[in-house]
Each structure stands twice: as C-alpha cells, then as structure tokens.
Amino acid sequence: MSSTRTASGKTSGKNGTWRNWGGNVSARPAREVTPASVDELAEAVRRAAEDGLRVKAVGTGHSFTSIAATDGVLIRPHLLTGIRGIDRDAMTVTVEAGTPLKRLNLALAREGLSLTNMGDIMDQTVSGATSTGTHGTGRDSASIAAQIRGLELVTADGSVLTCSERENPEVFAAARIGLGALGVVSAITFAVEPIFLLTAREEPMPFDRVLADFDELWTENEHFEFYWFPHTGSTNTKRNNRSAGPEQPVGRLQGWFEDEFLSNGVFQAANWVGRAVPTTIPAIARVSSKALSARTYTDTPYKVFTSPRRVRFVEMEYAVPREAVVETLRELRTMVDRSRLRISFPVEVRTAPADDIPLSTASDRDSAYIAVHMFRGTPYQTYFTAAERIFTAHGGRPHWGKIHTRDAEYLSRVYPRFGEFTELRDRLDPDRLFRNDYLRRVLGP
Length: 445
Prior knowledge:
The protein has helices at about 40-50, 100-110, 125-130, 170-175, 205-210, 215-220, 250-275, 280-290, 300-305, 325-340, 380-395, 410-415, 420-430, 435-445; strands at about 5, 10-15, 20, 25, 30-35, 55, 75, 85, 90-95, 115, 150-155, 160-165, 185-190, 195, 195-205, 225-230, 235-245, 295-300, 315-320, 345-350, 365-375, 395-400. With about 450 residues, the chain is of the alpha+beta class. α10 (about 325-340) runs antiparallel to α11 and α12 crosses α14. The chain is globular.
C-alpha cells in the first residue's frame, strides 16, 4: 500500500472511509494530514496543489451536508488547538482553528470571560462551527461568526493572510462564514466580555399560544427558543436572560435525570421503538412533550446555552424572515397533520438579528430558524422535501451544514451579496483547489 508523508511529519497510508457525525455522509480521501502549526498547514496546501489534489478541512464532522467531503487531501486540525493569546484591552481571544468550542468555553470561564452567544452544543471546532454559520438564538446577539474580530487564512497558493476590519477587510467580511471555499482557517480572534450569569426559564407551553404570543416572547427575552413536538399541540419553551445572580445551577441529580436520563437515555429508547413501529410515534410524542417539567436556574453562559446531544439524528434547518416564522410554522403543522408522516423528533425554533456577513443565513435581515430532525436510520426524505418546499416559499436560506437541495441559482436570489462572495472566491482560488461537489452545487462552477 502506498504511503504519503504528512505535514505533521507522520507517515500516513491510504486512508479508509471518513464519516460524519450523523452517519449520512462519507468520503474516501487520498490522504489525511494533521498539521501542528500554520507553517505545516501551508505546506500541506502547497503540496496538495503540486500533486493535483483538492483540499478540504474537517473538524468533528457535525455537518449533515457533504461540505467537508473530499477524495483529495483531508486536513484534520485536531493538533491546531489552544489559545494563542488574550487581549484584555481589546477584549478579544485568539484561538487555533481546531480548538473545540467546549475547550474554549472552559478556558474562557477560568479567565473570567465569555462569548456573548453560542449554539446549543459545543462539540464542534471553532473553525468548523463558524465556517458553516453555526448559531444559537438571540434577539440582539448574533451567530458565533458574527463575534469574530479577526482570522488567519491559508489560501490556495499557500500564503497566510491575516484578516480583520483593517487588514484585508474584504476577505475578513466574507471568510467569517467561508464554507471552506476561500481557504483553510488556521486561527480565529473572537470578541469576548466579562463572564456573566444567565437565568434560564424552561416551561411547557401550548403551540397555539407560542404562535399567538411569538412577537411578545421574542421582544421580552434576550434569548428565546422553543421545541414543538409534531402530532401534539405542545411545546417546551426556553427563555434566557442576563441576571445579577446569585448563581443557582441545576442540581446534579436533577440535571442527570432531566438532561441525561430523560432527554438522552429515554428519548433514545423511544426513538428505537418509533423506528421499529412507526405507528407508535404519535403516542410517544405526546408522552415526550410532557416528560420535562418547568424549571428555572441561573448559571454561567455556556452551561445555559448548551446541552448534551447524544441521540444521533439528521437535520434540515432554514432561516426565514423573522416576520414570516409564525405563518411558516402553521403551514408546517398543517402539512404534518395532513400527511402520513410519523415524526419522532421535535422541531426547533430560534432567532437571530441581521448581520453583515455575505453568506450568513441572517445576512441583512432579522431571521428565524426552523429545524426539522429525524432519528438516524429513519427515512427522512419525504418529510424534509415537504418541509423544504414550505421554507423556500418564504425565501428561506438553508443552513450550510444541514441537509438541503438548493443550488447556486436559488441561493443567488436569496442572498443579496452572493456575487460579492463568489467574486472573492474567483480571486483567492481561481483553480478551485478547495472545491468539492457540495461547493460546486451551492456556489456554482
């Protein structure tokens, strides 16, 4: 078997099959590289170009699209980890691209610092999360990428660009959510703030009431989200707001029972039953929607924003204009009720304010996110196709890391600055070193 010398100095034979977290995407790269520095990363990019191989970087594989798949060189950044430096005057932190969000959150907390907002899981690498537009929910605070103040990018010729609003500003503007199309991110500088407390109020609420009061719930809370259980009229809502304290975390036993035993263990078993006997799903959904009781707790941000997600699934998520979310959800419920679909996973709804990133799903418009899921191993195409038809009728923008069927022709219509991104791509990667089938579809040839 042939072998290849990697940029980290290790010899790697012909690689096996890479699979993503959801299990729905696989690839067989010609070789994998694990660089331990930006110089080794740049060398790996130059060598791939010399060998006529495409290049893709992959973090933890939490994307459900094939955005990181390649038959060329697969760059694994797990040696590019850790904090490079903290600037307390500028209130920024610079981290290596392969740093997991969990490690970043823990390190920041030890320094008395925090990101302003984050998604609901923290397993991803910082570069993987930002490159695909990962977000949480927020009335005023936006996605993780919107908190970037600078980044370091290895481009197709092996050059290392330092980018910010002052240095290479046009690259900075686009590369915050770059899809891996402009180069390989090697480091990111985030804005941070002194650590604060959030009070979370989790409460069951009827679906119809949530829709009727959605604008009020959004206006009155810094972070509002809810989960609707198809085949029921029930939701679980979550409202997170800053608090002066005192800190009152969820008790260890209660947290284990609700977040691990019920939300992961029992839910996993219920999905096994539903996959084997789909006719049981509506009854299971009714029980699931009532399993968690109301609770209120106050804790540091990452302990409130994020939750363990151990039940594997596949997902589609679209951003629609915030003012269209209620009508979109009504149409989604009508579609499910009139179909023969059996949906065991809740629908997640979040929001984000408009930002200035060309390929952000919230670019230039206040947005609401609607995410539909199916248990891994369960046929999802019929459900997702019907949901996507509803989302696109409202000008929806698909999450770059979640299942969708849109192409460049559609996306160029719903992103006002789409051409700005593709023109920059033409300049930075004219020979398409970072291309794969997914980018060919969503960005064009």
